[in-house]
Amino acid sequence: MTTRRTLLIASALSAATTSTVFAHSNEPHAKKTDPVKKEQKSWGIAGDDKAVKRTITMTMTDNMRFTPDKLEFKQGETVKFVIKNKGKVMHEFVLGTKKELDEHAALMVKFPTMEHDEPYMAHVGPGKTGQIVWNFNKAGLFDFACLIAGHYSAGMVGKVTVLAT
């Protein structure tokens, strides 16, 4: 009787946990369905698709480079970034200040699989394309980078200049 009961409990536990294992998406980061968080940052705020004035195609490669790696916008400009990963490994495009990128890069080394859902980040699998719509409503000098562990330190970075209007 004990063996049968143990077998029954083991089967029930196996069925319960198997369903949650297979419920996880195969995508590195599941598609967002929630509305975009519009939180003001020192480098801008999430933009509205209807306000896009310019589209910039960014390319990320396994030689740890972005093309282009220098961008210039006018304060108030809403830009759509089309971010293409031409490599064979995961890359990401993250806008921010040097200080914030440094802090986030350190976290990524400690927690390389942490998930993100910020509107100023795009995680793009090999051969895939991602998008960000951003309003550069603050003038200044900002940065972008790939914060996948090892990519930032390998020089996968770029600069953004936002000119005051």
How many structural domains does the protein architecture include?
A: 1
Task: Give the tally of β-strands.
Answer: 10
| CATH topology heading | Immunoglobulin-like
Give the CATH class.
Mainly Beta
Classified in CATH, the superfamily is: Cupredoxins -  blue copper proteins
Determine the N-to-C terminus distance: 80 Å
Class computed from helices, strands and strand pairing: alpha+beta
Uncertain runs: 6-33
Using the alpha-carbon principal axes, give the shape: globular
- Percentage of residues in DSSP E strands: 35-45%
The largest sheet has its strands arranged as 1-8-5-2-3
Q: What summary fits the major beta sheet?
A: 5 strands, mixed
Number of helices: 2
Second-tier CATH architecture: Sandwich
Helix and strand pattern: HEEEEEEHEEEE
Q: What Rg do the Cα atoms give?
A: 20 Å
Helix content: 10-25%
